[in-house]
Predict the 3D structure of the following.
Amino acid sequence: MELTASARSIPAIVHESAAARGGQIVLRKKDHGIWKAESWAELEAHVRGVGGGLLAAGFGRGDAAAVLSETRPEAVYADLAIQGAGGASIMLHPDDEGSRAAHILRTTGCRFIFVEDEEQLDKILTIRDQCPALARIVITDMKGLRDFNDNRCQSLASFVAAGDPSGWEQSLAAIAPENPAIMLFPAGAAAPMARVMSHGDVARMITEAHGILELRAGDERLAVLRMADVTERIFGLYAALRAGVVSNYLESPETATENLQQLQPTVFGADGEAWERLHARITRAADAATSVQRTLYRWAVAAGSRGGAMAGLANFLVLRAVRRELGLARVRLAYVGETELGPELETWAGALGIAIRRLREN
């Protein structure tokens, strides 16, 4: 779907896609071993529900709100709802120290924050007094918080229930390309400065990414990075929503290997560390194999690197099984963001028949 005059933002794309593709699957979440699918209509209803909570609470143009969570559908709902309600969305890294989170929330005048669970709630409660604009903390997972009571905190379910989504379409229509959409903060710095991206900036980035990656409706991707990473948030989620790619969410970060093997995605966006882990895993397996298997694997990688007829034979005998074991049997597009890939990794991936593309944030 193109960014039409009526869909000049990612939340507006979701709204229009729900009308055009309502029952088609747009995302899945692995939950207790089962992949649970969500349609465009269901995604739009979730985003609208959170957005209605924000609008009812007086959130709107010029405001900022944050999300502190692992990569999961509820973080997507909050991110898109913040933008759709007219505000700027901030994605905090779940491993951020409290001091860094406090700096970001304070300097941006953040009014609302959506936290994943009790652990992230505790982090924000310890620094809440340092963030005078912070009026509400919304909690996605209330496990362990049955007896918790704080008049400035509430569950996501109650926040949505108290909302009023009747003005959602009007809010989406009021978004202009120059309006702030997201705030990005460089990793690592204790007191980072915000880079504000407008809806027009986001649109340009995903248009460029779409041209490079040639994403197709019906492609499958596995979200393995945190949403604070531009590679996941813009080149992953937003580009997928524009192209109609199905986003699949891990049961937990610890199940990434298992989920990747099960899904066998066609699109895989990761960072250098993820590729290093994949390489190390296969290397360990080869080292633990019989001498014949180890020799065959090393021959196949060398043959794959050289190309030609022997590469085809190596693929038939060995490399296609390696890709399947890694969860990359169907991958036709693989990419990384700003992280560097060493020559050994690029050579190894190329030997497997996977060309890793580099996407840069402009």
